[in-house]
Amino acid sequence: MSESRLDETFESNNLIPESSNNSYLIDGMPIIATITTFGGESPFVEGLVQFSEYVDDTGTVTFNISDYYLLQLDPGVYQISTYTIPRIYTKDAFRFITLEVRSENWLKFGEPTMTLDLLNWYDSGRGAANFGNDYTF
Q1: Do 16 and 67 form a contact (C-beta atoms < 8 A)?
Q2: Domain 3-104 class?
Q3: Which residues contact 50 (CB under 8 A, 6 or more apart)?
Q4: Which residues neighbour 16 within 8 Å (Cβ) at sequence distance 6 or greater?
Q5: Full-model pTM
Q6: Which residues of 80-115 are buried (b: 16+ CB within 10 A; e: fewer)?
């Protein structure tokens, strides 16, 4: 394929879909995960704990974190950072997700205290309160 051909615009009927799954390229690749606060501090007594697992033949990885570590997490929001060790077919990759830990007696009361009207933003941004039919401010 020439370089000028790469600059052209393609339609969907010009594209050739891949029929095979290329997960065999990353089969057995180690993935490391850490759990920290959003300030970067470890919530565990032992300090920063790294959990490692390997990608299976379907291209997925499952971390089995023991109750010993999960019980050390206080209610709040944590960051789970995952990263790979670069190999011949991959480069190092870093991603994070959010983990929310709730207490056993966690309850949610009512609706959010503030709603924003995107069409009438001036009124919703100014704030208002009402009691029954009386408009307070």
Answers
A1: no
A2: mainly beta
A3: 32, 33, 34
A4: none
A5: 0.59
A6: bbbbbeeeeeeeeeeeeeeeeeeeeeeeeeeeeeee
Q: Which position has the token pair 């929001």?
A: 77
d(CA 87, CA 26): 9
CB 83 within 8 A of CB 93: yes
Phi and psi torsions of 97, nearest 5°: -130, 165
Residue boundaries of the structural domains of the chain: 3-104
- Tens-level pLDDT at each residue, the chain (137 residues): 567 776 777 776 766 665 566 677 778 888 899 999 988 999 999 999 999 999 888 778 888 888 899 899 998 899 999 988 877 777 788 888 888 888 877 766 655 555 555 565 555 444 444 445 554 44
